[in-house]
Design goal:
It contains 16 helices and 19 strands. By secondary structure, the chain is an alpha+beta fold. The two termini are 31 Å apart.
Length: 498
């Protein structure tokens, strides 16, 4: 079985044979004193993309490139190969008369996927393709497994997520997504830094399972002999920083939630949380709208972007509705017409909504109706504000309507993208709400506790503060037109193959 010029993905049994052949080639190279894995360095002075972008300057100039050999067109005593580095691909012309008989003979035995270093002159072929005319070529690393076949590539989604390294090799648009992800995170940081925010780091391991609805991952600290919990938010430590005297703080943080998985949820994900003293939820509303608009412009060139067949307009001022207004608009249910919790529950039943809590209050029913009837309609950027106090344990009550809080969430493409409050800074009210939340969580079997140290911090005094958190991964999905969160995570959580 000849494998010299293979450029196809073999079935599993054939791939095993290909690997055996390549291992034998490696042994022969090592026996001849040409072990590619003994190479420790190759000094390149140019990238593939630079050769193309700066051809007029570099034509007939000697350069050194390095990268993975992606294809070969064999014409006997001359070959054309494509070499790919982190910047892109470049055609290379390799001829026996230029590199010498011995090196050319060795080169002919190399395989698709091998890493090569090439020194040569930049030129344009008769067909007009910018290329490199090799004068010296070296083997820098050996590939023992064949790459996927050129025309069909690595198309199985599950396999692409599991073997992201192959996905990145074969699908340039995937690599572009992750370049863009890095740029988006940098632009978010640049924006917040420019507004005077200080980036801080807070603990990932917590000693308390707080009363929030998200389930944590549990681990054990051997030296202290205590169970610890991977964080489900960065909020409470960031607000400790506000207590301590920082006026504006943020964290780009990895979060862990032991919950379900779908197109917008992964057990570990990245959030950005920010807190600013002396502002409120309306101030955070202005900030996040401007942040999204600015980041979109800087990364994509426009604040109007395509997403899964829709055109999302972040340039136009975002729509605003209270939760009560939104539920009335899309379901017909009017919160202010309900005279009791029981009447609210009866209306939910008439609308076909099964409530999780059989004793749900008016505010809880309102939230359930919002989930059932409203969210899917919020395709264009929309702020939904003034949330019931029952579902907002960390937000300030509205002075003119204490059944509601100064809280908003914003929605794009029918999904919640972020959450913000005028932060509760009354330690007495905060303890009362925490105790109620913890009681509910314990009734569900959780090992929840009140975070007494956070209450202690509030008792030293926290100024009026606006706080906001959003999912970085969902922002990346939006700006890269990606349908699933797995498409914007390099290594999403996957069930092991047994």
């Amino acid at each position: 079985m000849s494998e010299n010029n293979e450029n196809v993905v073999a079935p599993e049994e054939e791939a095993f044979e290909v690997k055996k052949i390549r291992i034998e080639k490696l042994k022969n190279l090592q026996s001849a004193g040409k072990d590619p894995f003994a190479v420790v360095r190759y000094d390149r002075d140019c990238l593939c993309a630079t050769v193309k972008d700066e051809f007029e300057r570099l034509e007939n100039t000697k350069v050194r490139i390095a990268g993975r050999m992606m294809s070969r067109r064999d014409m006997g005593k001359a070959n054309f190969i494509d070499v790919m580095d982190g910047s892109g691909r470049l055609q290379v012309y390799v001829r026996i008369n230029d590199v010498g008989e011995e090196d050319f003979a060795d080169f002919k035995k190399w395989d698709i996927g091998d890493f090569v270093g090439i020194q040569g002159l930049v030129f344009r072929t008769r067909r007009g393709e910018i290329s490199l005319h090799a004068h010296k070529i070296e083997l820098l690393g050996k590939s023992l497994l064949p790459l996927p076949e050129k025309f069909h590539g690595l198309v199985d989604k599950e396999l692409r997520y599991r073997q992201r390294y192959v996905d990145l090799i074969m699908n340039p648009e995937v690599k572009d997504t992750f370049y863009k992800r890095s740029r988006i995170i940098s632009e978010v940081r640049r924006y917040l830094d420019g507004r005077g925010y200080l980036e801080v780091d807070t603990p990932v391991l917590h000693t308390v399972e707080i009363g929030a609805a998200a389930r944590p991952f549990v681990t054990h600290h051997n030296a202290l002999d205590i169970d610890m919990y991977l964080r489900i938010e960065t909020e409470l430590y960031l607000k400790r920083c506000i207590v301590g005297g920082f006026d504006k703080v943020y964290e780009v943080g990895r979060i862990f939630r032991n919950e379900g998985m779908d197109s917008t949820h992964n057990p570990e994900f990245t959030t950005v949380e920010m807190y600013e003293a002396y502002t409120d939820y309306k101030g955070m509303m202005e900030l996040i709208e401007d942040l999204y608009r600015t980041v979109a412009r800087n990364v994509t060139g426009s604040a109007v972007v395509p997403y899964q067949g829709e055109t999302i307009d972040m340039e136009t001022p975002w729509a605003k509705m209270t939760m009560v207004e939104a539920v009335k608009k899309y379901s017909g249910a009017d919160y202010y017409a309900w005279e009791s919790d029981e009447q609210a529950r009866e209306e939910a039943a008439k609308l076909g909504v099964t409530l999780e809590n059989k004793n749900a209050t008016k505010g809880q029913v309102l939230a359930e109706l919002f989930d059932a009837f409203v969210e899917e309609h919020l395709v264009q950027p929309t702020f939904i504000y003034d949330y019931p106090v029952e579902i907002s344990p960390l937000a300030k009550r509205k002075a003119d309507d204490p059944a509601f809080t100064e809280r908003f969430e914003y929605f794009i493409t029918g999904h919640e993208m972020g959450n913000a409050f005028s932060e509760l800074n009354d330690p007495v009210d905060q303890r009362r709400r925490f105790e109620k939340q913890v009681a509910e969580r314990k009734a569900q079997g959780a090992n929840a506790e009140v975070d007494d140290d956070f209450i202690n911090a509030l008792e030293y005094g926290m100024p009026p503060t606006g706080g906001l958190g959003f999912g970085m991964d969902r922002l990346v999905m939006l700006l890269t037109d990606s349908a699933s969160i797995r498409d914007v995570l390099l290594f999403p959580t996957m069930k092991p193959i047994k």
